[in-house]
Design brief:
β15, α16 and β16 form a beta-alpha-beta unit. The radius of gyration is 28 Å and the shape is globular. The protein is of the alpha/beta class. Strands 1-10-7-6-5-4-3-2 form an eight-stranded parallel beta sheet. The chain has an eight-stranded parallel beta sheet with strand order 19-18-17-16-15-14-13-20, with helices on one face. It has a five-stranded parallel beta sheet with strand order 22-21-23-24-25, sandwiched between helices.
């Protein structure tokens, strides 16, 4: 077979395959059985599925390795051998007619601090699977059905470090975001920074429901796209089986809309069969593929898990907040030396509220181990603020560890012409998809003139190109020198900015305050320099966003540069302006004014201040506060507000977990006092993932929220038979049973528990939930309630036990 990259580059739309699980069930796969283990024992069954898809017109068939990591296969299994065997199986069936995509599904674990698995543990698990897929004959690595950006990054890095095959990543979205809060465009931005060759979405919805997701990917999409919807939404038939009602012809008619949006590959996910793919192929014919011109010009983009920040010409300039730097800050320095981050978090929130859209993070203080502290602070900030980070360190080991810790594409500050710096740090930024600041410094001589700086930039760009580092990852520092000693410094900066824009189309930045060092009225000089720099094409600047004069200058310049349509942001921020009063925040900022300090226990829960809440409780108790009053008057209302923010999509799973863990820390701290005073849990709940299902992320989140709301929860784990669930409920005198299932093939086992509870006439209610479960399904099996997420589960549990 030719290299898969040739298929990516040709001018036609091609077909992937469809679903695997249902077809294997028809060939003997039992409910709850591992498809990979079944495939090892019955390779001819798996081969026949692949052959059916090839016969239906699929140019790409997907290996039976969705759960092929050590996390899913379980102890004692060989993920390399399993993936190798299943890839070889697909390779035999595909022959010379189709390419083989090595399927890499999610592990079922969250990366720390949201979960219990380290980033490098995930990379190692994925690497073993990828090695087996490559050895077995895969043509590309397909990282599919991902629901967390951090885990998707780990899988891509594993593939890059293990083989040279092209990589595809497909994420699943619901209501405009993936489970952990990443929007489709931010997913695209992050993966394109990593150089992923094929991007897309699969599962979670039928074609019609997936249209908005694909549309949201398009503004900056420059990569071929694969779209694989389900055959509609799952339903339960009269025999209690999960079915997808969308037939081949309807499915084919609906997916053709994705071709007009620029899809390079069409395929199917749950419920689709070779007949669905054949029907798509009949409509597709030899349809030409054209990737539409993105509505936005190409630019450098920095991302967090939650946000994308473009740095490009014709766009509002971006403030990079400079204040998380211990230089000259005694309190921050002391806390970093103690391994505490309260002050860093406060500075982060304050800067974001003032208009910073990226936050520079530097922990370089005496007696600080940067390689340990920088990633820890990066992890903390990633859960507390939505703004992307700029990792600022001369310690390459610390930068590498911080890149592991960050769930997005952070900016790296910086790469200079210092010997070995580009060779060591450049490939690291390329691997992690981390844009970086290019500093035009080389040797001992300071480049004073614009021509000297531009020569260094040109040399470093050539060096980066030789290392395979794309221009889309590079922003140039104009290298601000003080005008008090270098009178031509500002003019040199303006020329560098202009030349970077005109010659190379590169984004630029600078450390703004350097220009005025040693002079009076520094803010006045800084703000004048800023407006002139913006006129020459400056796209970002590193500064204190708390400066009212800077915010005024930036906002007014954006109006004059025609980058604030109808002056909407200016009017919103300065309608009540008076001279010297400031205004804002700067255009594009997400808030106004400084962040409010964490004053109450409720604030601590809402903001996720886990490290502070126990000390705050002790202070309240020392002043005579009643522990029950603290729980009922502050903690419970706060976690309820967090739930409401989650429902309104103001918070996503990371914030929900951060607040829930803060609440848990508070309860644990107060528990001895509550028990001594005769307090009792609200009610007992038995929780379990049903028989045959090994997924428990959703269940664990529900358990955390229930416990935070006063319920006593007995967690039976995953893959639990109905008899054991009911036995535990009877023994414990539980008021509620909570059942979770992620797969359509296992959710039918929920009926077993409901029927057994009714048979025994137990006085307990049964709640069901999970990614594939619906209200109609819950009603059909006689469950007492259905909850789509942890927040609604808490509400329903309270109602049923009131």
């Amino acid at each position: 077979m030719p290299d898969f990259r040739r298929l990516l580059a040709d001018g036609l739309v091609h077909l992937f395959d469809g679903g695997m699980g249902t077809l294997l069930q028809a060939r003997g796969l039992k409910s709850g059985q591992s498809p990979e283990m079944f495939g090892l024992a019955n390779p001819e069954a798996v081969e026949s599925v692949h052959r059916d898809y090839v016969a239906a017109g699929s140019r790409v068939v997907t290996t039976n390795t969705f759960g092929g990591t050590a996390f899913k296969l379980g102890f004692g299994q060989d993920p390399v051998g399993v993936s190798r065997a299943m890839a070889a199986c697909a390779r035999r069936a595909a022959g010379e007619h189709a390419f083989v995509a090595g399927s890499v599904g999610p592990t079922g674990h969250f990366v720390k601090p949201m979960g219990d698995v380290g980033f490098r543990e995930l990379v190692a698990a994925f690497a073993a699977q990828v090695r087996g897929l490559a050895e077995g004959g895969a043509d590309l690595i397909l990282v599919e059905t991902q629901f967390d950006l951090a885990e998707a990054r780990a899988a891509v890095i594993a593939a890059r470090e293990t083989c040279d095959l092209p990589v595809a990543v497909s994420m699943t979205f619901d209501k405009g975001a993936c489970l952990t809060g990443t929007a489709p465009l931010t997913f695209i931005d992050t993966m394109q920074n990593m150089g992923v060759e094929l991007l897309g979405t699969n599962c979670s919805a039928g074609p019609e429901q997936m249209l908005d997701v694909v549309r949201a990917m398009l503004p900056r999409l420059s990569t071929p796209l694969v779209v694989q919807p389900n055959a509609g939404l799952p339903e339960l038939d009269d025999q209690g089986r999960t079915v997808f009602r969308l037939g081949p012809e309807e499915f084919a008619a609906q997916v053709m809309g994705f071709v007009d949006m620029g899809a390079k590959f069409l395929g199917g996910c749950c419920g689709t069969t070779p007949e669905h793919i054949r029907a798509v192929g009949a409509r597709l014919g030899q349809r030409a593929w054209v990737l539409p011109e993105p509505p936005e010009p190409p630019c450098l983009v920095v991302t967090s898990r939650f946000a994308s920040v473009p740095l490009g010409h014709g766009r509002p300039a971006v403030i990079i907040g400079e204040r998380i730097n211990p230089t000259g800050k005694k309190e921050l320095t002391a806390q970093l030396q103690e391994g505490r981050f309260d002050e860093a978090v406060r500075l982060a929130e304050e800067q974001v509220q003032a208009g910073a859209r990226i936050l520079d993070v530097n922990v370089g203080a005496p007696m600080v181990d940067e390689a340990a502290l920088l990633p820890a602070l990066v992890q903390t900030l990633a859960t507390r603020v939505q703004a992307p980070l700029c990792i600022d360190s001369t310690d390459i080991g610390a930068v590498r560890a911080a890149l592991d810790a960050y769930p997005g594409s952070p900016l790296v500050n910086s790469i200079s012409g210092e010997p070995g710096r580009m060779e060591e740090l450049g490939p690291l930024c390329r691997l992690y998809g981390a844009p970086f600041i290019l500093l035009p410094l080389k040797g001992r001589k300071l480049p004073v003139t614009a021509a000297e700086r531009l020569d260094v930039v040109e040399e470093l760009l050539a060096q980066a190109e030789g290392l395979g580092i794309p221009r889309r990852l590079i922003v140039v520092d104009a290298l601000v020198l003080t005008v008090s000693s270098k009178p031509q410094s500002a003019l040199a900066c303006f020329e560098v900015i202009r030349q970077c824009r005109e010659r190379w189309g590169l984004a630029t930045t600078c450390g703004l305050s350097n220009i005025s060092f040693g002079l009076p009225a520094r803010e006045l000089l800084n703000s004048s320099f800023l407006t002139m720099g913006l006129a020459h094409g400056l796209t970002s600047f590193i500064a204190n966003p708390g400066s009212a004069r800077l915010r005024e200058s930036l906002a007014s310049a954006e109006v004059l540069l025609a980058r604030d349509p109808q002056a909407a942001s200016f009017v919103a921020g300065f309608s009540g302006w008076t001279p010297g009063a400031g205004g804002g925040p700067a255009q594009g900022g997400p808030g106004s004014g400084p962040a409010e300090p964490v004053k109450t226990l409720g604030d601590a829960v809402i903001r996720g201040a886990k490290d502070s809440i126990c000390a705050m409780i002790d202070a309240e108790l020392a002043q005579g506060a009643d522990p029950f009053a603290l729980v009922n008057g502050q903690l419970i209302p706060a976690i309820t507000e967090v739930g409401e923010k989650y429902e309104r999509k103001e918070y996503f799973l990371p914030q929900l977990l951060q607040s829930a863990e803060t609440m848990q820390a508070a309860f644990s701290h107060l528990k001895p006092l509550l028990e001594a005073a005769g307090g009792a849990p609200r009610a007992k709940v038995v929780m379990a993932t049903v028989e045959g299902d090994i997924h428990d992320i959703g269940k664990n989140i529900v358990i955390l929220m229930l416990r935070n709301n006063g319920f006593e929860v007995i967690d039976l784990g995953k893959d639990v038979p109905a008899a054991r669930i009911v036995e535990a409920a009877e023994r414990e005198g539980a008021s509620l049973i909570g059942l979770s299932a992620l797969m359509t093939t296992t959710m039918v086992r929920m009926r077993d528990t409901v029927e057994l509870v009714r048979e025994k006439a137990l006085p307990c209610r049964v709640l069901v939930g999970g990614a594939v479960v619906t209200q109609d399904f819950a009603d059909s099996i006689g469950a007492d309630g259905y909850t789509p997420d942890a927040v609604s589960c808490v509400k329903l549990a309270k109602d049923l036990t009131a």
